[in-house]
Amino acid sequence: MKPEQMDQILVAASKAFDAGMRRLNPMAIAEIRTSLLIHLDPLREARRRLGDGGLNGWNQEVRTGLLRACDFLQHAIRNFGDEEDLQAAYISALRSARKHCRALEALYPLCGVFPEVNRYFLEPGAADVLPVAMTLPEGTGLVHDDVSQNAHTRGGYSLYVPEAATPKSGWPLVVALHGGYSHGRDFIWTWITEARSRGFVVFAPTSQGMTWSIADVDFDGELLKCHLEQVCSRFHIDRSRMLLTGMSDGGTFALAMGIAGNGAYPAIAPVCSALPPVDLSRAKGKRILWVHGAQDWIFPVGWTIQACRELLQAGADIKLKVIDDLSHTYPREANDTILKWFGISGDRRQSAGEMTAGKGKI
Description:
Layout: H1 3-22, H2 29-37, H3 40-51, H4 60-78, H5 86-107, H6 115-120, E1 141-144, E2 157-161, E3 166-167, E4 171-177, H7 184-187, H8 192-198, E5 201-205, H9 217-234, E6 237-247, H10 249-259, E7 267-271, E8 287-293, H11 301-313, E9 317-323, H12 334-342, H13 348-353, E10 355-356
Parallel strand pairs: 4-5, 4-6, 6-7, 7-8, 8-9
Antiparallel strand pairs: 1-2, 2-5, 3-10
Helix pairs in contact: 1-2, 1-3, 1-4, 3-4, 4-5
């Protein structure tokens, strides 16, 4: 195995996992598992070479990152859907997704070492305009608050701050709310590629309970507001360009917060969500892009169509995008649609030109 093959093996396995999660549906788990298992042998061989001390010339930090990525990816693939009962298989797939996120945490710091890893965490074309550094500037990249240093603790938050440059007029901010039984430290990875490529901060808080307090918005909402103020005090955020989005219960909570009168967010983008029990008379003038799957088996698309009609009648500025082949899972390709609707261009060269290098407060 050549040194340059190591990153290719890890990235190929990670891309396969991304593709499998995009297709996630209880009835498709066995097929997805089969497509993932073909990556186990190359990962095992890569792990063996690393464990034997092969591929001399890499320092211990790089080797440790590769080992951790290999181990987490193998665990994620080996245990994906490894149950006969459909419900148990689905839950095991979600647990595997968390292990995949740990693999991404191990891989990301290696962007400055391996070109294939760097390209994996960028949109197509962005590698042509963004520099790659071996050492990230202080306060950039993936940042966790004190609580979220533990990947299982709830009630904290994770941040992603682009490393390459700082904007002239403050960072746009995407507030990304995870789904039920998930975690902000995991959900943040659904946005890092676009944030790194286009230049915006991602703020991914974690609910205090196993899901968001939809019936009592203030319970999680007040803590989220406090965390947001901390972020804005540490980083130069453009408060006029803050997008509130979320998946499943996270999207429902985003709607609840936005409609209930929180004027901090000029735009709301729920994904595969449901309409929360809030006073719709307060929805007038709210700007909403709702993304939903036609195959969603938890929140049927018919419910969403009716919810959008009700929001429209209440005076909301609402658009609905239904994705024909999407079940109840996150469609990464929809990030481009959401960002363009929000006003963050997909033109990486233009975005880079609008940013300047900076020091001190970001």
